[in-house]
Amino acid sequence: MVLCPVIRKLQHQWVVLASASPRRREILSQTGLRFEVVPSRFKENLQKASFPTPHAYAVETAKQKALEVACRMHQKDLRTPDIVIGADTIVTVGGLILEKPVDKQDAYSMLSRLNGTEHSVFTGVAIVHCCSTDGRLHTEVTEFYEETRVRFSELSEELLREYIDSGEPTDKAGGYGIQALGGMLVESAHGDFLNVVGFPLNRFCRELTRLYYPPPREGPQQLTHDPLPALDTRDNLSDAEGGGSDAAQSQEACGGRAEAGGERTQAEGAQEAASNRTGDGPPPFPIGLLELIDGFKASKALFTACKLKVFDLLKDETPLRASEIASRFGAPRGGVAQLLDVCVALGLLEKTRRAYSNTDLASRHLVSDVEYSLHGLVMHHNDHTWNLFSHLERAILAGPGPGHTSLGDKATHLSQNSRDQSKEATLGLLRATHGLAKLTARQVATAFDLSWFTSACHLGGCTGALAHALAREYPRLQVTVFDLPEVLEHVACFQPEGRQTEQIRFLPGDFFTESLPDADLYVLSRILSDWEDDKVHELLSRISGSCKPGGGLLLVDTVWDEEGPENATVDEARRAARNGLRRALDGLVWPPRAQRSLAEYRRLLQRHGFRDVAETRAGDQLHVLLGTRPSPREAVPTRPLRGRLHCRDA
Ligand SMILES: Cc1cn([C@H]2C[C@H](O)[C@@H](COP(=O)(O)OP(=O)(O)OP(=O)(O)O)O2)c(=O)[nH]c1=O
């Protein structure tokens, strides 16, 4: 069974695992992936001292293992696999890198070092996408590593000796196998268990997802090949010429030219095959740039498929042919079939025997009436954001000014007073925000333990997505959703059925002009970044004035100085950068928002009398702060303000 949708995307690719490790084979086959095993002949002898970190060494070794197999297969078979996966597992302790012990004595000294202490197990992984043009191998490498911290308990000499005699340490990094007898040595393990066993499966699936959604890479996907059996060990690919991986020979195959002298190392040969070529030839094909150039087309295809409700048509899981879908739209088959094929390429639809069905991703998020639907968000971007961005140049040249830009004028109707908006526009905006709010609601509700509060008031709580998550997590909590009457008149259609409904009430009102409902806990989610400082102070002082001693304020928002969590992985840092990019892009067409740093939000809470401010993250985009009110305080009288739609545009 294939649980990870991205694995399905690889089912027609020729995937090779460049490893002799039975553990890696077993772990990878658990995904349902069809792959072939071709053990690497790369000699694991890179200079450890030349790497800045132990994991850099593991990643490079993994890469060279995979590149060696890619080159050899290309040369010997004249058939190039689409993807070659290499991995290398090492154990590090006190700055030392431990690989597989060479003998019992070596195993003993490794295990003695690990005895009673904590060490790290790193597995470096390389996913090499290959393609062949004019007899030359071109590769694109994605690499990453995962760390697991393992602690051994204090072990007796006798136990270590017995363990070594069992023979288990021989083929395992650090001289132990956590998955078997070696599990008895381990007191604790923090991180991915499978990473210790030789392959970080979870991270691997996440990396594949990152690579294949959105649009799959063009190069490797254009290759065709015959389907191969799920598991087929082809250890013995070559060997008419006597095996061994000769660098010059493999260079000839990979680069289409022989290297006189043949003094180059295998690593160098494989490295060059990685197509980082410089010099006279054309520069490497800029896949990333072309994807960027074409990116808008992919978005528009998705928007159009959503507008036509293609994913709704396919939601009952009966695959339909292009002609059937076209006839439902009363449209000619040709264009519809093309759109459907684009959706297949984008990973939104699957095509089997000329019939189309939704991928898991589409079933979960693009069908309009499912729980975690983002259909409303897509429609909002199609109907509003798309037009705004077509005026981007004008917006930039006009620059910010009084009343913002001519584009800004157009834009403000999206985030302005909802009384000015048509009912349909308000509903569209609510659908867009509801989809996103639902996706993050549980993470926000559980960011802190709120079980000591008995009543909460979500100010500007819109459709109640967060209120429902709070009610679900805290069965004692009564939640009031306080929002403008013109917002609340539309929320009935967003309410799920269930027990939590009894814990939730919707109260119309304007949090700037009307008294706030009583509550132990006030919640503000993505509100403050819509307002400049004077309004923010006004609102916080009203909340502070209504908040009882011991009550709290839960503040949820994006922050401008986001760098990802402390000790962020490369992945997390990238995500943080992408969030920043999204905000920067929005800033080009919408009136600038009052983005604040985490420290500024913390100071705001403190200034308005909230103490012990704690902060954490909820998912990729949101930061959550919780402050409590130690003593009662008078509410500061406020000027009445115009009401507005308290939910962020998407
Ligand atoms: C720490 C630890 C390692 N190992 C294994 C995983 C790896 O197979 C091995 C480390 O050696 P590697 O050099 O990473 O891999 P390998 O030689 O087995 O296979 P190949 O190079 O062909 O890919 O140690 C366990 O099985 N259990 C453990 O607890």
UniProtKB/TrEMBL annotation:
Gene3D superfamilies on file: 3.90.950.10, Vaccinia Virus protein VP39, Winged helix-like DNA-binding domain superfamily/Winged helix DNA-binding domain
PROSITE patterns referenced in this protein's UniProt entry, alphabetically: SAM_OMT_II (PS51683)
NADP listed as a keyword: no
Record-annotated O-methyltransferase C-terminal domain positions: 420-611
Pfam families per the UniProt record, alphabetical: Dimerisation (PF08100), Maf (PF02545), Methyltransf_2 (PF00891)
Segments traversing the membrane: none
UniProt KW Calcium keyword: no
Cofactor names: a divalent metal cation
Residue ranges of domain O-methyltransferase dimerisation in the record: 290-368
InterPro entries: COMT-like, COMT_C, COMT_dimerisation, ITPase-like_fam, Maf-like, SAM-dependent_MTases_sf, WH-like_DNA-bd_sf, WH_DNA-bd_sf
Alphabetic keyword roster: Hydrolase, Methyltransferase, S-adenosyl-L-methionine, Transferase
Sequence segments annotated as region (Disordered): 215-282
HAMAP family associated with the record: Maf
Protein known as: N-acetylserotonin O-methyltransferase-like protein
Originating species: Ceratotherium simum simum
Encoding gene, per UniProt annotation: LOC101407658
